[in-house]
Amino acid sequence: MDYSEYYEARNKIIEILKKDLLGPLAEDEIIDEAPVNYYLVGKLYPKDIKKISDDGEVIKDEDTPFLDDTDLLANQFYQSAMGMSISVAKNVERINLECNYANYTQVLDEEDNDTHKWKRQSHSIELPIDLNSISKDKVLKKKIDEDLYIQIRDIKSIIDDNRHLMITLLNDAHVENMRYENLSPKTYFQPQMIVRTENKDCFLEVQQSTLEHIDDETNELEMLYSGYNSYASGHGCAVDWHLNDSNEVNEIFTDFLPEYEVLQMKPADCFNEDILSIKRLSEAEYSEIADGLQTAFAKYNDWIKELKNKSSSEIAMRNIAKCEEVYKRLLDAIEVLDNPLALKAFKLANEAMYYQRTKDVNGADYSVKWYPFQLAFILLELKSIVEKDSDERQIVDLLWFPTGGGKTEAYLGIAAFTLFYERLSDKRNDVKHVSIIMRYTLRLLSLQQFERAAALICSCEIIRDKYNLGETPFSIGLWVGQSVTPNSLDEADKFLKERNNSSYSNPAQIKKCPWCGKKIEFGNYYIDKKEKRMHIACSDENCFFGKELPIHLVDEDIYFHKPSFIISTVDKFAQLAFKEEAADLFNAGTNNISPQLIIQDELHLISGPLGTMTGIYEAAILKLLTTDGVRPKIVASTATIKNAMNQVRALYNAECMQFPPQGICADDSFFAEKSKREDKPARKYLGIMQSGASAATFFVRVMGSLLFASRYLTEAGFSDEVVDSFWTETGYFNTLKELGSSLVRIVDNVQDRYNFLKDKKFITMYPLKNAKDKYTKYYELTSRNNSSSLGDFIQNDLMIPYRKDSNQEPYDFIMSSNMISVGVDVDRLGTMLVVGQPLKTAEYIQATSRVGRKTPGLVVTLYSGAKTRDRSHYEQFIPYHAAFYKYVEPTTLTPFSDRARDRGLQALYIMLARYTIPVLRSNDHAYEYRKNMPELENIRKYILNYVESVDPEEIEDVIIELNNIESDWESQAIRITDLVYYKYGRTDNTLYKEDYMENNRFRMMNSLRTVEPSIEVDVEE
Q1: pLDDT digits over 925-955, tens only?
Q2: pTM
Q3: Cis omega (within 30 of 0) on the bond before 65?
Q4: What is the pLDDT of residues 492-543, one digit of tens each?
Q5: Mean pLDDT, the chain, integer
Q6: Cα(810)–Cα(829) distance, integer angstroms
Q7: pLDDT tier at 570, thresholds 50, 70, 90
Q8: Which of 268, 725, 844, 867 shows the smallest number of beta carbons within 10 Å?
Q9: 847 vs 709: CA distance, rounded Å
Q10: For residues 185 and 163, what is the distance between their CA atoms, to the nearest angstrom?
């Protein structure tokens, strides 16, 4: 695909943003409005302004001295200084400093002598700087304009004897009784400093202090990103640098609107195409497959050997050892395929994935291929599935690949292999049971991914029928909660009859056939209470699934029919404590067939309170799903994670292997490499820091400018497809409060600003003749909308493209919370405005990766100058964005901490006792409990061993609390002869109490997301 027109359009948008926000429109411009209002950023105000009163009066600070520290001045609301810190080699005696700036003076309007306008005067001054005249005690100060000074200080370092310079440009003007409109003559605009030198290797790397402590993973990251050096730090501005032909820095410059283009990682073209052909793999004999894989893996081994030649450091050798372990496991996979049943299952899995991709049972398209990393990851898991007693079965394999890289297809391939191998290896498996659990953290994400997995299950069903692979259909169930799908068939039936008048959730979640794509209407759903089934049929009777789709969407239906493949959310598993049928779904605590594979997507999201509670519940779930000492194989995926080893240990009490393991450079892991901007669309980030304007004004000005620029693309002659990719402005907000206030502004203030640009400021430079006066169609993408309506919006309304001659109007704005960071895969989104640096870098990467997925994207990040963290990210804009995976924060989980035990230890103990001791299993048999039951000794031992492995510091407290739980349960069981676990609306004879009963030992969480309650407040005016 040719992206050149998209890049050109993006450049035009950035050009307009810079003209509007920083200026100037023209070098010698004359403007009507006071320039302090006309331009938003890139201004050095008089230094003693503190604030401006509501009536426009400037209030000054009488005590502000002439300060040497740039930060003290730059931190003011009205910025009066800017600067940069650089390091130069100790032998460098001279640097050249160029200062560019402008000021505006009032002139009379030639046509109306009573009206004043503002005329721009630009200045450029070059200063040779003798570094020998600067020392720690001797600061160089030079006056370059009436109130404008250059200040240079050498900050000595205890690490080395090189020169570490802080270069400052500051406005030392004073104001006395000045009003706001008279501030412009004392303000300097569009300032910039450029440092150059004629010396070779003059500029040295500036050490960043962003990493809090040094450990093995930190050292590894330093090695991986060693090619991404930082040569300057900004103060009240960002900094950037240029490289010469020898890849050396030859100049460093300040920038108020910094840009950085992030190139996407892409699957490497490292294997022969024949071995990647899905169709060929479904047909080939073992010898052909083995030879092809041997050749492919030999290339990987050669790459590993090259790494050894390039680096022999301890850190590098640790990474190389991980690569060698992967190589060994890949070779083992070839031996596994020598097993006829494993080979057949592998070929059938490829056939299923081919059908899923092409929907063509009779096709022979050999160009449909795996990416090398996908095929390799599938092969890595074969031994774990086939040889249940292998050590690899106990390892959690983590697939790490950037967002949109194809992770889903990789683990769907593993799922298909698992289904077929289980069916082929033992006829006793030809019964209804859950083989695979795929878990997400958000219901919206679960719903979206369900459709892709449903297409695979349809493919598997066709293959089962084609090759007579048993009587039990392969099927899939969506088990996510009442906000998405009904809990009972009665609820589903009532909704289908009453529809919009029903208070129940919508069971009709499948809108089109996952096999043929035909639309599915309400009439294609019907309830059969005798079979305990909600049937769904394709609307096309000629479709293979014209009579029935192998899909289950209602909890009652799922409990009875036990689909082969369950897609769920992690918090749904809290239901195991309440519902025996939920435990029976997975044959928990029995010797019947239990799930063989657990797939955990977006592992990085299982963090914080949700991750902590998931960890303590997981201790029960994994034990209950263990049959004959064999636990399910767990694979996980993420695009952003740090400290994965500790997170996996806390969640699953298991070792972790990340695939693909990094080598010695972040840009090349053999299976993935950095792409060129011509091969994959690059995403550009643009930073803006608030100064001299309120956060509300700041948002309105920038969003208004983006709105104008995107609409101007239509006048500039860009194609409809290019215009569409930048049409819908996506806003990302860190809090619902900020998002809520923006909703009013986009339909009011932003429109006013847009019209000002259209009718006044840009009427000559960027004429917009055919545009509307208002663009106010927006959608709020937050948890305040239910999952069903969100899914409909994303799949249908948001997909409406811009077309010049179409009557359908695409959305102008999407205002989103962090919900957009996962599960919103819409190729047409190309622009995002991030309001404030998100708390976590992983969140920033995930959220901004939602734009520019298919075509080049633009992310504009608004930083608050009043927030230290925002300011720091802005001042380090270039190095941060050049290597932001390096700055992903570690996730922390404490599943057995005091607060977590208070909420979950009783659930862990009760679930294990209830479902492993037959007499306690039924809901109304809680009274049967006695703490001297012989089976309880193994349960205690399991819990304590688990805690000892995951969080040994908590072991003593766990012992005490387990004793209390046992005594309290026995006491209630003796006292209340009809004690049950749970009864809706009752607590008098129930062991479980409501979660809000904080002082009760048996308070029980109905969902793992109830750890951080929130309320919605409606204000009536």
Answers
A1: 999 999 999 999 999 999 999 999 999 999 9
A2: 0.91
A3: no
A4: 999 998 876 666 788 888 889 999 999 999 999 999 999 999 999 999 999 9
A5: 91
A6: 11
A7: confident
A8: 867
A9: 22
A10: 36
| Distance (Å, whole) CA 944 – CA 999 | 24
Instruction: Provide the CA 324 distance to its chain's centre, in angstroms.
Output: 30
1000 CB burial (10 A radius; 0-12, 13-18, 19+): middle
Residue corresponding to tokens 């659990």? 437
Residue-wise pLDDT tens digits, 14-52: 999 999 999 999 999 999 999 999 999 999 999 877 655
CA distance 221 to 885: 9
Q: Over pLDDT 90: what percentage of the chain?
A: 73
Query: Please, what is the Cα angle at 771 between 766 and 777, to 5 degrees?
Result: 125
Between the two ends of the chain, the Cα-to-Cα distance in Å is 53
In whole angstroms, give the CA distance from residue 585 to residue 140: 76
Q: What is the dihedral of CA 665, 669, 674, 675, to 10 degrees?
A: 160
Burial call 510-521: b when 16+ CB within 10 Å, e when fewer: beebbbbebebe
DSSP result, 168-225: EEEE----SS-BGGG-GGG-EEEEEEEEE-SSTT-EEPPPP----S--HHHHHHHHHT
* Residue of 59, 50, 51, 20 lying closest to 38 (CA atoms): 20
Q: Within 13 Å, how many C-alpha atoms sit on residue 619's CB side?
A: 34
The residue assigned the tokens 């890849």 is 247
How far is residue 964's CA from residue 1001's CA, in Å, rounded to a whole number? 9
Cα 182 to Cα 636: distance, rounded to the nearest angstrom: 61
Domains contained in the chain, CATH given: 23-256 (no CATH), 273-485+554-673 (3.40.50.300), 678-864 (3.40.50.300), 897-1012 (no CATH)
Query: How many residues are there in the chain?
Result: 1021
d(CA 142, CA 132): 16
What's the rounded Cα separation, in Å, for the pair 70 and 80? 9
Whether the pLDDT of residue 177 is over 60: the answer is no
The beta strand positions in 298-408, using DSSP E, are 396-400
CA distance 862 to 690: 7
Closest CA to 704 of 737, 735, 739, 748: 748
Please report the pLDDT score of residue 1012 as a whole number.
47
What is the tens place of the pLDDT at every residue in 975-1011? 999 999 999 888 889 999 988 888 889 999 988 876 4
Q: Are 715 and 19 in contact (CB under 8 A)?
A: no
| Six token digits for residue 897 | 């901490």
As a whole number of angstroms, the distance between CA 391 and CA 332 comes to 13
Using an 8 Å Cβ cutoff, are 148 and 160 in contact? no
pLDDT at 995: 84
DSSP secondary structure, 611-632, as one string? HHHHHHHHHHHHHHT-BTTBPP
Q: What is the DSSP string of 761-781?
A: ITTTTS---S--S----EEEE
Residues with Cβ within 8 Å of 252's Cβ and at least 6 positions away in sequence, in order, are 84, 86, 194, 195, 203, 231, 232, 239, 240, 241
pLDDT tens-digit series, residues 814-865: 999 988 887 678 899 999 999 999 999 999 999 999 999 999 999 999 999 9
Q: The tokens of 926 are what?
A: 């809680």
- Structure-model confidence comparison of residues 567 and 159, the more confident one: 567
Q: In this predicted structure, what is the pLDDT of residue 592? A: 85
Tokens linked to 232: 């300057």
* Tokens coding 19: 């003209």
At residue 10, the pLDDT reads 99
Instruction: Report the C-alpha gap between 848 and 842 in whole angstroms.
Output: 10
- CB–CB of 648/615 below 8 Å? no
**pLDDT confidence of residue 892:** 83
Q: Find tokens 């929130």 and name the residue.
A: 1014
